[in-house]
Amino acid sequence: MTFLNTILFELGGKPVLLIDLLSAVFGLTTVFLAGRNRKSNFYVGYVYTALLFFMFWQKNLYANLILQPISLGINILGQYRWSHPKEGEKSASGDGGLKVSMLTWKGRGLVVLLVPTLALLWGWLMSMMGTRWFVGYFPANPLPYLDCCVTVLILTAQTLSAMKKWDCWIAWLFVNVANLTLYLKAGLVFMPIVSCLYLINGIWSLYTWYRLYKKNV
Question: Which residues form the domain of 86?
């Protein structure tokens, strides 16, 4: 897999590797397809997950690393849910797919409560890795709390997306802002630009999914 570390060009004095470019292309493609209500986004997402696993391993961002197998499971669940809706969940388009829905205010309150709680707990656990626990086996995570905040937000956004909840795009907006901060603090140059593109897509997808919700699609 060393060919994935091939330097393609430099941006702002920082090398852009092949894996960086591939991750950006597959990541942008999968969220673009999801925002346009395309089931094919899941197939692209499988490749994207594998690329991220390798990339985060190199960056010692363990929370995001652990996230990838979980993301794979959520993608599989999402692909099934989008294609096999229960009675009352079917899209009015007649394609047999899952329609867009929204969380209740109670559900939104639960999400707002759980996300920071889980992020703080996971961040503390990750801060112990390589410093007090398993010293010498794992390099210390340079940004444990921010890393875990991004991780929990991504899991939340992916789960809501798998359920085809409009609210997932609000979660993705928080993910994009947090990712932008994480990548800048980690010294990356190329990925912050990609995060800005994710942000633009997220804003547009908020609008497109709201229209689908109104049409019961």
Answer: 2-214
Q: Indicate the number of domains in the chain.
A: 1
Residue of 62, 52, 181 lying closest to 125 (CA atoms): 62
- Which amino acid is residue 116, in one-letter code? P
Total-model pTM: 0.84
Residues in the chain, pLDDT under 70 = 1, 60-64, 129-142
The string of DSSP codes covering 85-121 is PPTT-B-TTSSS-BPPB---HHHHHHHHHHHHHHHHH
CA 164 to chain centre: 15
Find all residues with CB under 8 Å of 205, minimum gap 6, and list them. Answer: 31, 34, 35, 169, 172
- The pLDDT tens digits for 9-30 are 777 777 778 888 898 899 999 9
Instruction: Yes or no: say if 156 and 171 are a contact pair by the CB < 8 Å rule.
Output: yes
Q: Can you tell me the distance from the alpha carbon of 57 to that of 170, in angstroms, rounded to the nearest whole number? A: 28
Residue 74 identity (one-letter amino acid): I
Tokens of 18: 């092949």
Cβ–Cβ under 8 Å, residues 78 and 162: yes
